[in-house]
Amino acid sequence: MTATVQSAAATAGHPGASGVDHGPLDTAALRAQFPILSQSVHGKPLVYLDNAATTQKPLAVLDAVDGYYRRDNANVHRGVHTLSERATAAFEGARSEVARFVGARDSSEIVFTRGATEALNLVAMSFGAMVLREGDEVLLTEMEHHSNIVPWQMACARSGAKLRVAPIDDRGELDLDAFEKLLGPRTRIVAVTHVSNALGTVNPVARIVALAHAAGAKVVIDGAQALPHAAVDVAALDCDFYAFSGHKVYAPMGVGALYAKRELLDAMPPWQGGGDMILSVTFEKTLYNVAPYKFEAGTPDVGGAVGLGAALRWLSEIGIERVAAYERELLDYAEKALLDVPGLGLVGTAADKAGVHSFMLDGIHPHDVGTILDHHGVAIRTGHHCAQPVMQHFGIAATARASFAVYNNRDDIDRLVAGLLAVQEVFA
Amino acid sequence: MSELRDLYQELILDHGRRPRNSGKLDSPTHHADGYNPLCGDRIALYLEMDEGRVKSVSFEGTGCAISQASASLMTEGIKGKTVAEVLSLFRKLTATVTGRDDDAANEGDVELGKLAVFEGVSQYPMRVKCATLAWHTLRNALEGKDVEVAVTE
Ligand SMILES: Cc1ncc(COP(=O)(O)O)c(C=O)c1O
User: Fold this and answer.
1) CATH code (residue A97)
2) Which of A88, A95, A135, B131 could bond to A76 as cystine, CB 3.0-4.6 Å?
3) In this structure, are A160 and A268 located in the same domain?
4) Nearest by CB to B4, which of A365, A366, A372?
């Protein structure tokens, strides 16, 4: 990740920065905490390299979710009985954990959602409706995931605002000059991904926030691929919104969160109506609850939130800086190993990357690569990675993508490379 | 690895590498485009029908080895056939690759011939669409439907 983000996080006293152990990671012990990884696929020990799609879950998370349903399960915010109090405490405790992990000033700045997609839709629906008028502009980048494109297209269609797209270059880096030129007096919202899921590019989000704010625009960051790989400090970054999914940072599927500055949440209208988001309801008039509850209509995924809290605590205990350093080294090792495979080309060669290598094998379609690797027990993703504009930029329909997590090691990468050579043998 | 060779048989690899009947026909009577949004595979299919039979057929496309081989072998397999024969071949082929063992799969007088090479696809549910895209596009062309997205369900 960028040096600026890291040092900002360190000075802000991110939990990882003051972690007890600064030594190298004991990855064998870490890996043993993931029961799913000790299985065979097609008779070969599983090598899981599809972490950008979703990560596996450590015992700390599995046990937390299991424990919640075995001991504490009840609906939240609505009962005076003991279990409801415990469930509410667990849910709100998880909110505090999220706030601490991303560096929010207060846990009321954290809205639980189903994931990054729902968080981005929330911003586009609610904040979009509040600020976008005919002729206004929303500025995105060419490397966005569909979930940070489509909600803005919908918001533009509703409001008459226009979508602007900052281009990327052939290394998969954002063209910052073009971005700056596209920032105009009518730009109300800048929505960018922190890390590209298709290319691995780390965007200079601190610089983007500064530029956007200078132009009077608010900034929405899609952090789905960033949070697992580096320290994030939203207060230091000064972004207005930060969205992420739990399932990509070792937590269960079905839960994620939106960070938003408190004053924005206070001003924004609710986007879904129902229980929990109200203070009082009559047929004449309904009083809305305060943020973040105003944005959490209905019974939330409490078990999921508990799992998310456990996952972030687990990551903090390991130390997110150590995780970042280890993964950085692994990514470099993987890059060298992959480039040694004859006929392999990387798609996305940004100077600053995290978590992902996308690649093509000469004359072999990514789907064939994926099927044959699977036969060797190696799980990767193939396809357009929900980022079709990126594929269009490079003039391809799909890539093969290996993506890494803290439990991966050099053996995994060696197995990937051996698998790729076997793919080439089939097609030789 | 024997299982993998069930999918990637020599015939498939050969047709994937060097698709037959690729290109555009000069005077097609039927045409349809197919697109598999999941994989990004694309195919444009051209047919010249004469007195109810396939006189010539060609395709342009991009995609994985399975999808290219399927289109290539399909063009070889349907040449000279009547519409009814092509459609029963369609039913037999799609039943075979989805691993269905029903009336269509066992349709009496239809011979898969070389197309039997796709039987192995039934072991790979995620790859069925690769093998059927060309066939769904073919049916759309025959039925005069030039839809952008050939539904392979
Ligand atoms: C960069 C990015 N943004 C958003 C998302 C959407 O996440 P989810 O599907 O968990 O809501 C993803 C997941 O693929 C992603 O990689």
Assistant:
1) 3.40.640.10
2) A88
3) yes
4) A372
Q: Where are the alpha helices (DSSP H) in B45-97?
A: 65-78, 83-97
| Beta-carbon separation of A383 and B39 below 8 A | yes
Statement to judge: residues A45 and A144 lie in one domain: no
CATH number for the domain harbouring residue B37: 3.90.1010.10
Which of A292, A316, A340 terminates a domain? The answer is A316
Tell me chain A's radius of gyration from C-alpha atoms: 22
Q: How many Å apart are CA A330 and CA A293, to the nearest integer?
A: 40
Tens digit of pLDDT at every position of chain A (428 positions):
443 333 333 333 344 444 445 678 888 999 999 999 999 999 999 999 999 999 999 999 999 999 999 999 999 987 889 999 999 999 999 999 999 999 999 999 999 999 999 999 999 999 999 999 999 999 999 999 999 999 999 999 999 999 999 999 999 999 999 999 999 999 999 999 999 999 999 999 999 999 999 999 999 999 999 999 999 999 999 999 999 999 999 999 999 999 999 999 999 999 999 988 989 999 999 999 999 999 999 999 999 999 999 999 999 999 999 999 999 999 999 999 999 999 999 999 999 999 999 999 999 999 999 999 999 999 999 999 999 999 999 999 999 999 999 999 999 999 999 999 999 999 99
Q: Which residues of A are catalytic?
A: 386
Residue listed under structure tokens 């998880």? A94
Two structure tokens written together for A313: 């605590």
Q: Answer yes or no: is the C-beta of A296 below 6 A from any ligand 1 atom.
A: no
Nearest to A365 among B1, B42, B65 (CB): B65
| pTM for this entry | 0.92
* A147 Cβ inside 6 Å of ligand 1: yes
Q: How many domains does chain A have?
A: 2
Does the CA dihedral B66-B72-B75-B77 come out positive or negative?
Answer: negative
Ligand 1 within 6 A of CB of A224: yes
Instruction: Write the ipTM.
Output: 0.89
User: Which residues on chain B are in Cβ contact (under 8 Å) with A371?
Assistant: 4, 7, 124, 126-127
